[in-house]
Amino acid sequence: MPTGPDVLATAERLWTGELTTETAHPLAPEPGLAEVADNMAFVRAFANVSALATGDGLVLVDTGSRYMAKEIHRQVRTWSSEHLHTAIYSHGHIDHVFGVPVWEAESKADGCPGPEVIAHEDLPKRFDRYVRTAGYNAIVNRRQFGIDSLEWPVEYRYPDRTYRDHLDLEIAGHPIELHHAKGETDDHTWTWFPERRVLCCGDLFIWASPNAGNPQKVQRYPLEWAEALRAMLTLYERVGGGPEVLLPGHGYPIVGPVRIRQALGETAELLESLVDQTLELMNAGCRLDEIVHTVTPPPRLMDRPYLKAVYDEPEFVVHTIWRRYGGWWDGNPATLQPAPERALAVELAELVGGATAMAERALQLASRSEDSDLRLGGHLAELAWLASPTDPVVAEARRKVFTARAESATSTMARGIFTWAARESGDPQREARG
After folding, report:
1. Are 262 and 278 part of one and the same domain?
2. Helix or strand holding residue 322 (H, E)
3. Which of 181, 228, 275, 384 could form a disulfide with 355 if both were Cys (CB 3.0 to 4.6 A apart)?
């Protein structure tokens, strides 16, 4: 029985444009369950969970975050009493992989066998890296989501079984296909349930412009991502037909082959366009700065309700493509072996009459509210603050400029960083940090 918000009704309203992802954000933690096929359910959460009841136990694709795991378990229990047989991790991001202990504890209490966890062979390496970089990941995720109390975990439920390219399972007579892909991560798995004609794509589709350019995270793979989406479309060439239901890692289901083809195909097209444009300019010898301000995503695609830049942005994806095929240097000789940022800021402030004058100009630019002026204002506000970080007038100007930038931002990524900068202004500990 469905619980919580009417998941499928919301999905329909999003597709038709009655709702937008600005208001029904794909990462909003609003739990709800819907049965999407015979013996198959979808739990809408911050990171979604899909469930197949096999008769011999549940198969889950993803298990949720630490914060949502118990609520997801409760939602599933309104629909099925089966114990967890198998959990498939779509990838190793922590919002998808922390629910297994809840199910294991239940099985142990009931005297039942524990579940098997399956993932791609690169996923354990991700967990290892997360342990080594726990401090950094805590900092960047606090900044990205505005959660000051966020602590990065250092203990993980590793998979019991891994695979490399493709894995065919049969659980209680139900065939399940696992396919590896690179996209948002290098350890992604998309899962095909041919009997149900249900496709679980993980974060390869999230009801938003692809999260392929996160400015604070490790390398993403835009071209390989597009190839994975094209591979999903080949399911329609098989005997028996392709997906009738698409269950994403974030956001809402898409129902119907026509809509699924469109969503997967156009997401691939967007990524391919960004890759092609960027590589063309790289091959012509352009600097990163010129490329970032030249590449433009196809407007008709950005108008799609499932490709809005509400989480990541195409501009950020250009940086990812440069990093993937080029290197860390942006082509500007001054940045190859640069002076310390603060030394440059002090020098420029002296040239223009002081950090206060620079901060005043930043405020003038920000007051115009045009994107180009806000960008320039951000540069000047940051330079002024670096030159004189303890000046309260300069700090207040920086706070106002980056507050304006946050208010004008459309994506979670940009809004999080600009809000962090606004809050950081005037922080007395900033001087000690560098």
Report:
1. no
2. helix 314-325
3. 384
The answer to whether position 333 is within a domain reads no
Residue 377 belongs to a domain: yes
The distance in angstroms from the start CA to the end CA of the chain is 55
Based on the domain organization, do 289 and 185 belong to the same domain?
A: no
> Per the domain annotation, does 395 fall within a domain?
yes
332 domain residue, yes or no: no
Residues 20 and 95 in one domain: yes
User: What is the domain extent for residue 250?
Assistant: 7-269
360 phi/psi in degrees, rounded to 5: -65, -40
Identify whether residues 346 and 303 lie together within a single domain: no
- Residue-wise pLDDT tens for the chain (434 aa)? 444 459 999 999 999 999 999 888 998 888 899 999 999 999 999 999 999 999 999 999 999 999 999 999 999 999 999 999 999 999 999 999 999 999 999 999 999 999 999 999 999 999 999 999 999 999 999 999 999 999 999 999 999 999 999 999 999 999 999 999 999 999 999 999 999 999 999 999 999 999 999 999 999 999 999 999 999 999 999 988 999 999 999 999 999 999 999 999 999 999 999 999 999 999 999 999 999 999 999 999 999 999 999 999 999 999 999 999 999 999 999 999 999 999 999 999 999 999 999 999 999 999 997 999 999 999 999 999 999 999 999 999 999 999 999 999 999 999 999 999 999 997 655 443 43
Contacts of 377 (CB under 8 A, 6+ apart): 361, 362, 363, 364, 365, 366, 401, 404, 405
Decide the pairing of beta strands 116-120 and 161-163.
Answer: parallel
DSSP code for 64: B
In what order do the strands lie in the sheet containing 166-171?
A: 166-171, 174-181, 188-193, 198-202, 245-248, 254-255
Instruction: Answer yes or no: do 211 and 186 share one domain.
Output: yes
Q: Supply 323's token pair.
A: 């990093």
Which pair of structure tokens corresponds to residue 111?
């005297």
- The residue among 269, 294, 309 that closes a domain is 269
Specify whether 162 is located in the same domain as 174: yes
Q: Tell me if 220 sits within 8 A of 312, measured CB to CB.
A: no
Please count the structural domains in the chain.
Answer: 3
